[in-house]
Write a structure and sequence with these properties.
Order of helices and strands: EEEHEHEEEHEHEHEHEHHEHH
Structural class: alpha/beta
Strand content: 15-25%
Shape: globular
Radius of gyration: 18 Å
Number of strands: 12
Largest sheet: 8 strands, parallel
Low-confidence stretches: 215-221
Helix content: 25-40%
Number of helices: 10
Amino acid sequence: MRYRMLGDTAVSAIGLGAMPLSIEGRPDEARALATVHAALDAGVTLLDTADSYHPPAGEPGENERLVARALSSYGGDRDAVLVATKGGRGRSADGGWTVDGRPEHLRRAAEASARRLGLPAIGLYQLHKPDPAVPYAESLGAVRELLDAGTIRLAGVSNVDRGQILLAREILGERLVSVQNRYSPAVRDGEPELRLCAELGLAYLPWSPLGGISRSSLDGTSAQEADPRFGAFHRVARSRGVSAQRVALAWLLARPGTVVPIPGASRPETARDSAGAAELALTAEELAELGE
C-alpha cells in the first residue's frame, strides 16, 4: 500500500467508502463487517462514512455504528486507521436526500457522530453539502468551532465549487485538509476544483470514483467497451490482467495533486481489488490512452 497525506496524517492511497454497507441494497451484517476487515487487511487506513448513510426508514448514524463495530471486532492493527465522517445531510421518508447546514445542527450532528464512532475526537469531519438556505460562511463557522472545541481534529468540505473551497480555506485555514467531490472516468467536470486543490495542497477525495465502470473486464466482454468513456479502461485492464475498476482507480491516483479515491464496496473481494490499485503504476502511454 502507498500512502498520501491529509494534512499531517498519512492515509492509504485508496480508502473505503462505507456507504453501500448501510443503504438500500446493503449486504447482511456479516458480509458488511467482512468487507471492512478485508479492506483493512489490504492496507486501507481511510474509512469514509456519514451520519446520513442509512435507509429511508433507518436511524441517522447507522453506517457510523457499523464502522465502529467493524473496527472493534477487527483483530489487526487499528491505530493507523482514520475514520472520516460527514454531517449536514439526511434522508427523507421517500428515499430522497435532505440538507441542513445550520450551525446548531452541525454541532449536534458532530457530537453525535463522535459518540457513535466511540472516538474522543473525529479524525476528519466533512461538511457534506452547502445548504442553500444557510450562508456557507455560517456553516463553516460551526466547523471551525468544532475544531476549536476538539470535537474534530481535521476538516473537509464536500460537493463544493472553487469559490466555496477558497472561502473554506479562508475560514478554516490549515485545518482544512480535504475536498470530497464527484470525479471519475465518466464524470470529469470537477477538474477545476481538483486543480485548485493541487494548488492549495488539499487532498481530493473523489466520491463515486468508478463512475459506472463494471467490476472487471476479465469477467467477460462488457458493453461498456464500446463506450468511449470506458473502452480504454477495459483495454488497459485486459493488457495488464487486472480489473477495469483497478485501472480506473490507478488513473485517479495519477491525477494532479493528492488524490485519494474512496471506492465503495459491499463484498470483501471488491474491497481487496480496489486496494490493489495503489500498486498499479500506469505508463505514460496508458495514461494518454485513458485520456489524461
